[in-house]
Design goal:
about 200 residues, alpha+beta, Lipocalin, eight-stranded antiparallel beta barrel
Length: about 200
């Protein structure tokens, strides 16, 4: 396993979000507007499953990845198995990284700690989730990075902009750097989308 994909597992959240048996795309809810945010603790059972990376602040680890997917599987004692899947370009083979995470129950299940090689920790935070768990906003200490997740690979432009605005106004994320992640080949080279590492 190459060093960069392994290090990515630490940087990507702990939520870097397997092997996606937990939630099939066909049964995933469509992303809904932000009328009302899920209050209280994050329901870990509902949070599990497949999440598509719709947008992110690019970083030197993830930059240029397309078709990025994070999948979570709940284990015992608030432990979560995480798989991050991606491609360097749509003509490239899929790659994946498996890591483990623990969830701080006292934070309302919002703070996560992950490890790669079972020893190097990193932290992340579930900022918000939709009431129906169709989208999520993920943050990282320092506010330099953030992610927009959804249960399906496509998101309405108006909703994407609304979520980006929430990241900027409520969480002080520099969304000038926020890029959409291509989930389909036809999105490559479109305005606002990240450029793949390989075409």
């Amino acid at each position: 396993m190459r060093l960069i994909p392994v290090f990515l597992s630490a940087l990507l959240l702990g939520l870097t979000l397997p092997a996606a048996n937990a939630l099939a795309q066909d049964n995933a809810p469509a992303a809904t507007p932000t009328q009302g945010i899920a209050e209280g603790p994050i329901d870990l059972q509902r949070f599990m499953g497949r999440w598509y990376v719709i947008g992110r602040v690019p970083n030197f680890i993830e930059r240029g990845h397309v078709a990025s997917i994070n999948t979570y599987t709940l284990q015992d004692d608030n432990k979560v198995a995480i798989r991050y899947q991606y491609r360097e370009g749509f003509s490239e083979p899929e790659e994946e990284i498996d890591i483990r995470a623990s969830v701080d129950e006292e934070s309302g299940n919002r703070r996560w700690r992950t490890w790669f090689y079972k020893i190097v920790p990193t932290r992340s935070r579930v900022l918000e989730v939709a009431p129906d768990y169709s989208w999520a906003l993920i943050g990282y200490p320092g506010r330099e990075m953030a992610w927009i997740f959804a249960r399906q690979p496509d998101m309405d432009t108006a909703l994407y902009r609304e979520l980006a605005t929430r990241l900027r106004d409520k969480y002080d994320v520099n969304t000038d750097k926020l890029k959409r992640v291509p989930q389909h080949p036809q999105q490559v080279d479109k305005l606002g989308f990240e450029v793949p590492n390989k075409k």
